[in-house]
Write a structure and sequence with these properties.
By secondary structure, the protein is mostly helical. The protein is about 80% helix and about 0% strand. α2 runs antiparallel to α3 and α2 packs antiparallel against α5. The longest helix is centred in the N-terminal third of the chain and has 37 residues. The chain starts with a helix and ends with a helix.
Length: about 180
């Protein structure tokens, strides 16, 4: 039937997108594991990252403390975590994932906050790269992992969400087939 064909085509497109995202995640994770094996004691003071968080949070508070309360709270939470534990490869991965989930759960428009969170994560990435500068193999693996993660993020925005929708607004297989 036509309904079955649309469902099958859409379901196949969604499965391919999901497997591709998972493949990219697995590749990045393997490279991050290499970094952790080659530089197991890497833990840097997140000076630039904390400065980026403080700057962004201050600007958000100045432009509307109540309107931006959720995003500022997430940013301050990240800062508190980093002050306590320092900055590691694992904490970068955790904060990337956690920040978006916390913002989404708080009802913050991710399209508006994506650039600000990206600036914080870029500062953290830069500090970790500096911490790995004396270990070229670990640094190469870290850069590869970050490039793959960026590719995964781009794939999610440009391909996966076209067929799957977003977490809060998923598409049915039939709708995916129409795309």
């Amino acid at each position: 039937t036509a309904r079955g064909d649309g469902y099958d085509v859409g379901s196949m497109a969604q499965n391919v997108a999901n497997r591709s995202r998972q493949n990219l995640k697995d590749r990045a994770s393997r490279n991050y594991a290499i970094v952790e094996r080659l530089a197991p004691d890497l833990n840097v003071q997140p000076t630039q990252t904390l400065a980026a968080i403080d700057d962004i949070a201050s600007r958000l508070e100045a432009s509307g403390a109540n309107a931006n309360r959720a995003e500022v709270g997430v940013l301050r939470g990240i800062a508190d975590d980093l002050r306590t534990s320092g900055l590691t490869v694992e904490s970068l991965q955790t904060q990337r994932r956690l920040a978006r989930n916390l913002l989404r759960n708080a009802g913050v428009d991710l399209s508006a906050s994506e650039g600000r969170i990206g600036a914080v994560m870029q500062a953290a990435q830069n500090e970790l790269e500096a911490g790995l500068s004396s270990n070229p193999n670990a640094l190469d693996a870290f850069r590869r992992a970050n490039a793959i993660w960026a590719e995964r993020s781009q794939f999610t925005r440009e391909v996966s969400q076209v067929f799957n929708g977003t977490r809060n607004s998923p598409l049915s297989p039939e709708k995916a087939a129409e795309r």
